[in-house]
Design a protein that fits this description.
There is one protein chain. By secondary structure, the chain is mainly α. It contains five helices and three strands; from the N terminus they run βαβαααβα. The protein has a three-stranded parallel sheet, covered by helices on one side.
């Protein structure tokens, strides 16, 4: 962070009583691979969505207890980076799958459009230049263009919100993280919070 106010990090602030409140309580994974709590994720992503993209970001977790293990800031940073990194990869897969379906839909739609034009011309040729043949021909043509709606929607509208969200997740996967502690809480409060402390260690601090 520089002394220039224009270059200072945009801060996302989260206040919790315990670190474990940030994470999904039913996820059995080790702490560093554990999913964020859906409400915590929604809060962080929602705040990040409103931040300017031309300035650095930082995440500050206000923790209602004194410091515990020396490595807990690093562990929290790794867990958050891992989670949003996986979410970014999932978003990238979603985008690739969307483009794959879009290409398939485009091929089908073009084939249907060509068939509609051919059938419409054939019917018009069979019935001659009459009002009925004109209506039928236009009907087949409209049907063919309607089939183009889905691939056009994919390539014109559907992809860019997913890409924008993916870029946001990518930034969150490398965001600086720090913890600010509340020094007035009991010094051993961390023992009931840290998920990786063995039961014997927790009991010895009581």
């Amino acid at each position: 962070m520089t002394d220039d106010p224009a270059r200072q990090s945009q801060i996302i602030e989260v206040r919790v009583g315990e670190l474990r409140q940030l994470f999904n309580a039913i996820d059995p994974s080790p702490f560093r691979q554990r999913d964020l709590d859906p409400r915590a994720e929604e809060f962080i992503v929602g705040w990040a969505s409103d931040l300017p993209t031309d300035k650095p970001w930082a995440l500050v977790v206000h923790l209602e207890r004194p410091p515990g293990r020396a490595d807990e800031t690093a562990a929290l940073r790794e867990a958050i980076h891992e989670y949003f990194g996986q979410r970014f990869l999932a978003s990238s897969r979603t985008l690739r799958e969307l483009f794959r379906r879009g290409r398939i839909s485009l091929v089908i739609a073009l084939a249907f459009l060509a068939a509609s034009i051919a059938v419409g011309d054939a019917v018009a040729g069979y019935l001659g230049e009459t009002r009925v043949s004109g209506v039928i021909r236009e009907g087949f043509l409209i049907g063919g263009w309607v089939a183009m709606w889905r691939p056009l929607e994919v390539f014109l509208y559907d992809w860019w919100p997913i890409r924008a969200h993916g870029r946001l997740l990518q930034r969150l996967s490398t965001i600086p993280v720090r913890i600010e502690y509340k020094e007035s809480a009991p010094a051993d409060a961390w023992r009931s919070d840290w998920p990786e402390v063995p039961a014997a260690a927790k009991g010895s601090g009581s």
